[in-house]
Amino acid sequence: MKRIITLLAAFSLTGMAAFAQQALGPGTGIISPEINPDHTVTFRYQNRKAVRVQLTGDMLPTQKRTVNYGGREQVMESAGIVDLQEGPNGVWTYTTQPLTGELYSYSFIVDGVRTMDPSNIYQNRDIATWTNIFTLSAEKGDKGWYYEVHDVPHGTVSHVWYDSPVLKAKRRLTVYTPAGYEDNPKAKYPVFYLLHGSGGDEDAWADLGRATQILDNLIAEGKAKPMILVMPNGVYFNQAAPGAAINMFQPTMANSRSQSTEEFELAFPDIMTFIEGHYRVAKGQYNTAVAGLSMGGRQSSALIRRYPTKIGYVGQFSGVVVPEGDDDPALKAVFAAKPKLFYIAVGSADGVKVNSLKLKDYCDQKGYPVEYYESDGGHIWRNWRVYLTQFAQKLFK
Amino acid sequence: MKRIITLLAAFSLTGMAAFAQQALGPGTGIISPEINPDHTVTFRYQNRKAVRVQLTGDMLPTQKRTVNYGGREQVMESAGIVDLQEGPNGVWTYTTQPLTGELYSYSFIVDGVRTMDPSNIYQNRDIATWTNIFTLSAEKGDKGWYYEVHDVPHGTVSHVWYDSPVLKAKRRLTVYTPAGYEDNPKAKYPVFYLLHGSGGDEDAWADLGRATQILDNLIAEGKAKPMILVMPNGVYFNQAAPGAAINMFQPTMANSRSQSTEEFELAFPDIMTFIEGHYRVAKGQYNTAVAGLSMGGRQSSALIRRYPTKIGYVGQFSGVVVPEGDDDPALKAVFAAKPKLFYIAVGSADGVKVNSLKLKDYCDQKGYPVEYYESDGGHIWRNWRVYLTQFAQKLFK
């Protein structure tokens, strides 16, 4: 109760009143996480009554095991868990090994219950679970560096509503326009449509994927072309993300995923029509890119199969449409339209790797030019941020 | 550990791997908060090992006490705290009395430690403190109803960067353009500049204040004019909110407040110049409103004193500039410029009420037309949302 009492005391000093003003208190007074000069990171959590406090997060060595997917043996990984040590005043601490540049996610486990770090305001929501985050930039230009905000020109990030006649609904989009868009009223820009995965929404790539920081930094470094980035909601029966949608629904895999990509595919031209009607767009196949992760990867794969002459660059991150039969006509049409980039990326520990390889092997056999990238790790955001950082640098050049 | 184990099990089933994918688990499986048909609300929290679980929040009766500010006795309030009862499977519960329509904030206190409700993804950050929230709409048109998202046309919410030559910095703004703005390329709109309080930032009014939902709903009901709402960062030495600013700083009262409003006042024309240069603005005094809460109320008060002929509507929520001497020349100039609305609002339990009354009494004595509104409660967001809802309906008519 000590902190609460301190905070209540603070009100009477400041003349502030009532619950909301607890925020006017001094916070926890604990520094966590603390990034040390040697790039080790110290976590601290104050709890005088807890019996056991643990840390789980992707900065810890993963627990590995070998499993069999579709006849292929592969190593699967799951989150590491370590114990914090209790010190004076009930402050529990743990310090990691030196870490490389990355955006890391973590939670505490207090006597078996997942708990947020109350000393760190930075957190991400993935479907129904919040986790704390921090970025570590080991050196300029490493992964972590691209995920951080730097003193570079920043694009505009807008949440806009468009009309989808196909889905008979108003739906929400997150749209990034690059720095300079507002001040160059004659310039036209290519468009990159970026799709989230199951359980996600139109905020996921910006919040979990750091897409706007990655583009700000790549464009400032001259490594990516200035482009408009459009992040739709890929679940055809959801109008918007939690908070922007009607009713405060709790997202689940069930209410935030599309088993079928067809409805979204058929409604995709509604998004292009809105964007081309409301932004200064350089139109045409070679000014149009589509990519996505997991379900969004399958949707990207399906979209270029359905609209081969409209999409010049496709990125299939941890999700693809597997070719049908020995001579898939849709895929033949895709390559007949000569896309400039047909990119497949997946993690070596990802259960969907088998499907990505099926697509790659099929294309290799047919002589279809594809770019295949296999990273370490599984079906996780830290991979999808890497794929986005790679893919964005290959566009519109 | 049960939940973690369940989640890890989920990976092996789905082939998903590693920490981030814990989010692909089923959530807590607990419904909290649950709004019952009689508008009582049931809170649930699962913890098998906790000895005591409490709930604190602004839906509970406040603890009242009388104190003396500036020679005036007034009742101060602080947050109520109640105990949850433990039931089967370590699920702790508490059910409130029937509640009126409102946005409510709460936290659990688990063996003395403030803890988020892991079953409710909805939360707000006020300075350094996250709290869970929920809205309750008792009937159409009550307070809570205006804070919810309804099936009405939605405006666009953009995060844009502007250049401030006065502050020699690029700074971030949150800008709301009303529904229809994009589709009426000839229409021009009045502008309402809305300022946050100490410890806040350019996201505070949208996140904690529900400003965009309030405007969407008021405009849809025909109760407010379509307008552009501009929410700047009022702390002259901060470029942007945490997350959008360089470095993941932890906000505090110290690093997120301006003791002096002068730097912001002098740089305010940079914001107007940017907005008028990049949006379709109906210019002039009677198309310009400024309001703010606490520090932002002082800033609003100071801005109309400094620019009396540029501002036609001013709202001073829980913060004012107290007149100097018997014949304050700045205030005389303000009313010589004939503002259409000079609005002062404060809570009866707010420590700054004494200053608001000084300004009101001074204006009454001078015969300056002011609108004074005194609500219940203290220096809290639930009051500022009410003042915004009132003030926005009086603008540009």
Helix and strand arrangement:
Two copies of one chain form a homodimer.
Chain A: H1 2-14, E1 34-35, E2 41-46, E3 53-57, E4 63-69, E5 72-78, E6 80-83, E7 85-86, E8 91-95, E9 102-110, E10 113-115, E11 123-126, E12 129-136, H2 143-147, E13 156-164, E14 169-177, E15 191-195, H3 204-207, H4 211-220, E16 228-232, H5 262-278, E17 288-293, H6 295-306, E18 313-317, H7 329-336, E19 341-347, H8 353-366, E20 371-375, H9 381-392
Parallel strand pairs in A: 15-16, 15-17, 17-18, 18-19, 19-20
Antiparallel strand pairs in A: 1-2, 2-8, 3-6, 3-9, 4-5, 7-8, 9-10, 9-12, 11-12, 13-14, 14-16
Helix pairs in contact in A: 4-9, 5-6
Structure, described:
The structure is a homodimer of 397-residue chains. Helices cover 24% and strands 28% of the residues of chain A. With 397 residues, the first copy, chain A, is an alpha+beta fold. The relative contact order of chain A is 0.10. Mean pLDDT of chain A is 90; it is low at 1-25. At the A-B interface, helix 1, strand 5, strand 9, strand 10 and strand 11 of A face helix 1, strand 5, strand 9, strand 10 and strand 11 of B.
